[in-house]
Amino acid sequence: MAYQLFYWPSIQGRGEYVRLALEEAGEDYEDVARGPGGVDALMAALKEGSTPSFAPPFLRVDGMTVGQTAAILMLIGERHGLAPQDTAGRLWTHQLQLTIADLVNEAHDTHHPVGSGLYYEDQQEEARRRSSDFTAARIPKFFAYFGHVLGDQDYLLGSDVTYADLSLFQTIEGLAYAFPKATARALAQHPNLDALRRRVAARPRIAAYLSSPRRIPFNEEGIFRRYPELDT
Amino acid sequence: MAYQLFYWPSIQGRGEYVRLALEEAGEDYEDVARGPGGVDALMAALKEGSTPSFAPPFLRVDGMTVGQTAAILMLIGERHGLAPQDTAGRLWTHQLQLTIADLVNEAHDTHHPVGSGLYYEDQQEEARRRSSDFTAARIPKFFAYFGHVLGDQDYLLGSDVTYADLSLFQTIEGLAYAFPKATARALAQHPNLDALRRRVAARPRIAAYLSSPRRIPFNEEGIFRRYPELDT
What we know:
Two copies of one chain form a homodimer. The first copy, chain A, is α+β, with helices and mostly antiparallel strands. Chain A has two domains: 3-80, 3-Layer(aba) Sandwich (Glutaredoxin), CATH 3.40.30; 87-215, Glutathione S-transferase Yfyf (Class Pi), Chain A, domain 2 (Up-down Bundle). In chain A, 55% of the residues lie in helices and 6% in strands. Chain A contains nine helices and four strands, in the order βαβαββααααααα. Chain A has helices spanning 15-24, 38-47, 69-80, 87-111, 124-150, 163-178, 180-189, 191-201, 204-210; strands at 3-6, 29-31, 58-61, 64-67. In chain A, strands 2-1-3-4 form a four-stranded mixed β-sheet, sandwiched between helices. In chain A, β1 (3-6), α1 (15-24) and β2 form a beta-alpha-beta unit. In chain A, α1 (15-24) packs parallel to α3 (69-80) and α4 (87-111) packs antiparallel against α5 (124-150). The longest helix of chain A is centred in the middle third of the chain and has 27 residues, at 124-150. Chain A is globular and about 45 Å long. The termini of chain A are far apart. The relative contact order of chain A is 0.14. At the A-B interface, β4, α3, α4 and α5 of A face β4, α3, α4 and α5 of B.
């Protein structure tokens, strides 16, 4: 297989953004850490070579190893037509991806506001405060932005799907899992984002992927965690 | 002037990463919000056009408007030789930038762990807990990574400076301002990073910039804030 993806084997996490792009591109890939001895292979590969990564995910192809989700997506986008080729379109897609990444970071920090090295149970009070700000102010602000960008188009850039659409789909799915009440409220304000989510889910390769065993279910080890006490 | 930078007028913040790249490139730029009526112009421009930004900074050039610090730096890097042109080198530079951005986000959240819309004074206890994890675990981990990548080279990619070097310089400067004790400890473990910092500061255009009135001093409104109670 051309692509080797290195990411934690039991969560969607940031690796899922890469999986979705490779699936939409119709590319075969080895999800290395999900194979036998996979986590050891992941940990060894993390430090190898001249372009090591600070953390998974990273992707190997044609002798290159690329880390950081947004950089990986830029590469897949260029190779498989999931972003425009011209400078302005390429950077605009990337700008949208980076803004989605900001939202994803904020979603992660709702359950780990004090530190990613500590357990949720040891920062539950802080998590409650942070989540209250996230659901009341941040989700609505991000959704208003993406709703404005999308407008009445099929996809964020117009008629052609890009990796940013796949990432926005995944992020809305994650928020709907983690914060069902707050996300339903926000989607009711922006039905075009709900339509985008359904439009991406219905793309043949994405639909096939979502119903396959390759799609790991959401769970409480990933970025998007359902802690009902945080969904206000 | 070819470039118009839109960013808050009284802080270094994320805009400083863009300023440093434009300064190193020797490019003239208008720092719009620092001119008369500038903040109004910034707020109006934020929502204008077909590629609006979620937040400053954003940069206008040749009819393009690009937001998100890392995307802006990619553009400047391509136009002014502050990154390699080949795919692998271009993406590696970007990967490093995105990892620096992760560190910058974590530095910001030390004083705003609960929410960026609340005052520091209203989340001081949480800030103390988060900073303790940041100084004890996160700064050492990031410095170990960048120290390993740098090795005994002059710059992160070898002999040529890239925008990632400028960004790492700025981030070390910011950490040394906000957390002087913790940063001194970490730099003592990685003298090559301290050397990189001095090497960048001594580049003629950067040195001229740093001693000019264009360089806004660090202060307690930006990303890197000196709250001595957090520097443990």
